[in-house]
Design a protein that fits this description.
This protein is an alpha+beta fold. The protein has one domain (3-166). Helix content is 28%, strand content 30%. It has helices spanning 9-17, 67-78, 95-104, 144-159; strands spanning 3-6, 25-33, 37-41, 65-66, 86-93, 114-123, 128-136, 164-166. Strands 1, 2, 3, 4, 5, 6, 7 and 8 form an 8-stranded antiparallel sheet that branches. Strand 2 (25-33) and strand 3 form a beta hairpin. The radius of gyration is 16 Å and the shape is globular. 26% of the residues are buried.
């Protein structure tokens, strides 16, 4: 698990809320505090959709909503003349990307054992901090998936020209 302090909040917010930079993630939860505090549970309520409108939601294969679908809602809650007091987004890397990442890192832990590779994004009114994490279906002694995820996120941020320092 690593924590990254983002050095340019404006650049990062453009990547998060406007560009497609984080579209390969699912949103597990969000909390945004402006004039009001909004809490969003990213779980998809599949029972809401009937057989005649299942085509309305593209992310039915997932338990969580895709970030690209939730991003406009979050952007609308944040935009304005004043910066938010606080926000927190908990994103999960899509499972198909988890498998590719582990294979590229020659990891001996099967992707099916990993419940989620997590990216938590927090803004406290003055700075943005990203924190990596992982969740497994069973206990795993190896830190190999965590190390691969930490390294992959560093490379991802560098490719996207998102400047950071490790805390």
């Amino acid at each position: 698990m690593l924590a990254f302090k983002i050095l340019s909040t404006k650049n990062f917010m453009n990547h998060l809320l406007v560009a497609d930079t984080f579209d390969n993630f699912l949103m597990a939860e969000a909390m945004i505090s402006t004039a009001n505090t909004y809490q969003i549970d990213g779980h998809i309520n599949k029972e809401f959709f009937t057989s005649d409108n299942l085509d309305e939601i593209p992310s039915m294969p997932y338990d969580f909503s895709e970030w690209k679908d939730m991003k406009p809602l979050c952007f609308n809650l944040i935009k304005g003349k004043r910066t938010p007091l606080f926000f927190k987004f908990v994103l999960h890397l899509k499972q198909e990307s988890v498998g590719k990442l582990l294979a590229a890192g020659n990891c001996n832990i099967p992707a099916e054992q990993i419940k989620a590779l997590v990216l938590t994004i927090k803004y406290d009114g003055s700075q943005v901090v990203l924190t990596t994490g992982s969740a497994f279906h069973t206990f795993v002694m190896s830190k190999e998936p965590d190390n691969i995820w930490d390294k992959a996120l560093q490379q991802f941020l560098a490719r996207k020209n998102i400047d950071y320092e490790i805390l």
